[in-house]
Amino acid sequence: MEIHYRLERPIAMDVHLRVEGFTVLLGLSGEGKSTLLKAIAGLLPASGTPFGGLPVQQRPIGYLPQGYGLFPHLRAWENVAFPLLPGADRHREAMDLLARMGLADWSERYPATLSGGQRQRVALARALARRPQLLLLDEPTSALDMATRDEILEDLIAEMRQLQIPVLAVTHDPHLATMADRMAVLAGGTIVQEGTPRELFAEPANEAVARLVGFRNIFPATVASASSTGVWVSGPGWRLQTAPRPWARPGMAVAVGIRSEEVEIQDAAAGGENALCLQVAGLRDEGLALRLKLRGALSLDVLLPRLRQRDGGIIDPSGSLQVYMAPEHVHLFPPQGSADDQPREGG
Description:
Layout: E1 2-7, E2 13-18, E3 22-26, H1 33-41, E4 47-49, E5 61-64, H2 76-81, H3 90-100, H4 116-128, E6 134-138, H5 146-163, E7 167-171, H6 174-177, E8 182-187, E9 190-195, H7 197-202, H8 207-212, E10 217-227, E11 230-235, E12 238-242, E13 253-258, E14 264-266, E15 275-286, E16 289-295, E17 300-304, E18 320-324, E19 331-333, E20 344-345
Parallel strand pairs: 3-7, 3-8, 5-6, 6-7, 9-20
Antiparallel strand pairs: 1-2, 1-4, 8-9, 10-11, 10-13, 11-12, 13-19, 14-18, 15-16, 15-18, 16-17
Pfam families: ABC_tran
Protein name: ABC transporter ATP-binding protein
Organism: Acidithiobacillus sulfuriphilus
């Protein structure tokens, strides 16, 4: 399903994206993600397709706002039955939908007595009661606890795929995007990149996308040389090789991005290209992983999973380390506003 909506208030946006299966729209808070969903649902004045020009009640859309919007004075089955036509066997239909969500035994409960995941399922059953052609989910992870979030989301996504209803979920949580069939990134009122999660996480188009998908190491650089075999970039006291970039030109100001988990620790004797000796400026445990702050010619954030921690994770907090970054893990982003920094498909 192709979606193209334009609106001026409360934020100017011109958004064109494709929804396939479970699609996640990722963006920072304040970018207008919730505003876009309200526009598609007909709750805000906007022009676009599909469903443009139809009043809210005629749009075949299921909409789950943040907090789910359940009526606190109605039982679970009554919430689900609310959008059903009068005269129909509303109780039976509502119970069928709750059973599909695994909540038949909770049908007489009020929202205040349900967990976050249960309330989400009730709200989803109510949305499905409209027999929608499109489901809109606003920050679906916001009311879920970390212990059960993945299990609940996996069940819900599997249910949506079985129903073959396209879903557009908006979030600032990159973890949700990893579970999607397709994702897009919203920045500056437009889509700056879309494709599969694998494509966007592996090859973000620009700095904005890189930060949203978890890059902690992003710094300015200058292209020193470029050829069909690779690009060399440099800054004060350092020089790194990256994969070839057709758009890179010597002297061009660019940004370099490196994932924390793709920085390798190596023996000082190894040396070689893309190796730097840096000082340990801080370290802390993150569960079974170890996060390092390194300083020197470059300042790097490094995440060492359990299997990659040297000497069982014992690192001198005041010592130095030699790090290595494979050229394919050194990402290069064009100058903001350049032709190569425009919205694009995939990686």
